[in-house]
Design a protein that fits this description.
Order of helices and strands: HHHEEEEHHHEEHEHEEEEEEEE
Mean pLDDT: 92
Largest sheet: 8 strands, mixed
Number of helices: 8
Structural class: alpha/beta
Number of strands: 15
């Protein structure tokens, strides 16, 4: 059975683990994403998840008496997705751990910061991950949406860039922008669960909705960078962990960016995790050994499955600067 972070939180026993999972749930994307927790390492060195992706849907028609239907079948292809191991560790001198709690609990602070970085890394791989050639050598990544969608039928590129770079252009082009969003939805097999973009595009999106007289409902429990449009989340994904570069970039030459639409679900885009129901782990410093410097870590092992080719799409060439 698939599991969500909300369910994993209920199943967790240690108080700190519950708190860590609660921090992961501050990501609207992670909170909404179901995970198929069925992967068991094979032979000690494999974290692959094999699934069938629907490429072509079957047809249906009427028929006359005494005649058969023309047969048509759904066409699938076997896909292998590798789970990534990501997170990070921290080190503290035991004197700091034992000697200071009134101002800041150093272990708790480092765990909280490492969770934030781990969330950012998941967001980054969700868009930019490359299983075959990861950004960092000697690391594992899963294929992200950009890798999966580039050059395919689910990549929508307008004949001319959508100009939203100035207030004047937003006022002139907001209707054309909404038309392109409808075109984006039209190539999908259901309503998007989320629209994913960078922070600058998120601000432009809000301005478009202001012009259209559409109220974007706030999602305060996820932070100021998430809103709701109808039944869909509208979310700014933030920056790549460790630097100030946005996960969904803006071209430095022509000032254009992209918006990704994704339908989350076990029949659409979903997460993949190890069997057993644990979606994130925290490893606390061992205060029983004799070393002066103690190590702690936060880690997540997860992948991405793109079960239907029509469960995600991307709109390109939106000029915002």
């Amino acid at each position: 059975m698939p599991i969500t972070f909300a369910q994993a939180q209920e199943l967790s026993q240690p108080k700190l683990t519950k708190k860590v999972i609660d921090q992961f749930r501050t990501s609207a994307l992670i909170d909404a994403l179901p995970f198929d927790n069925t992967v068991k390492p094979a032979g000690g060195n494999s974290l692959d998840y094999v699934y069938n992706r629907v490429k072509t849907f079957p047809g249906a028609a009427s028929r006359v008496l005494n005649a058969d239907y023309s047969p048509s079948e759904a066409v699938t292809e076997a896909i292998s997705s590798r789970l990534a191991i990501f997170g990070g560790s921290f080190q503290l001198d035991r004197a700091l751990i034992l000697g200071e709690h009134e101002v800041v609990d150093h272990v708790q602070f480092q765990v909280e910061q490492k969770v934030k970085a781990t969330i950012a890394q998941f967001h980054n791989m969700f868009i930019n991950g490359k299983q075959s050639a990861p950004a960092i050598a000697d690391s594992w990544e899963f294929d992200g949406l950009d890798t999966l969608l580039v050059g395919g039928d689910q990549e929508i590129t307008p004949a001319n860039p959508i100009m939203l770079d100035t207030s004047t252009n937003i006022s002139a082009n907001w209707q054309a922008f909404l038309d392109q969003l409808r075109a984006l939805e039209a190539v999908m097999d259901g309503s998007p669960t989320a629209y994913l973009m960078n922070q600058a595009m998120y601000a432009k999106f809000q301005s478009v909705m202001d012009r259209a007289g559409i109220n974007l409902a706030s999602k305060e429990n996820y932070g100021r960078n998430v809103s709701v449009w109808g039944d869909s989340l509208v979310m700014a994904l933030g920056n790549i962990p460790g630097n100030a570069s946005p996960i969904i970039g803006t071209d430095v030459v022509d000032g254009t960016t992209s918006i990704y639409a994704v339908r989350l679900g076990m029949d659409g885009v979903h997460g993949v995790s190890l069997a057993g129901g644990k979606l994130a782990d925290v490893y606390l410093p061992n205060m029983q050994d004799a070393s002066a410097v103690k190590t702690g870590a936060v880690e997540m092992i997860a992948g991405l499955a793109y079960t239907s080719t029509q469960s995600a799409a991307v709109l390109r060439d939106i000029k915002i600067v």
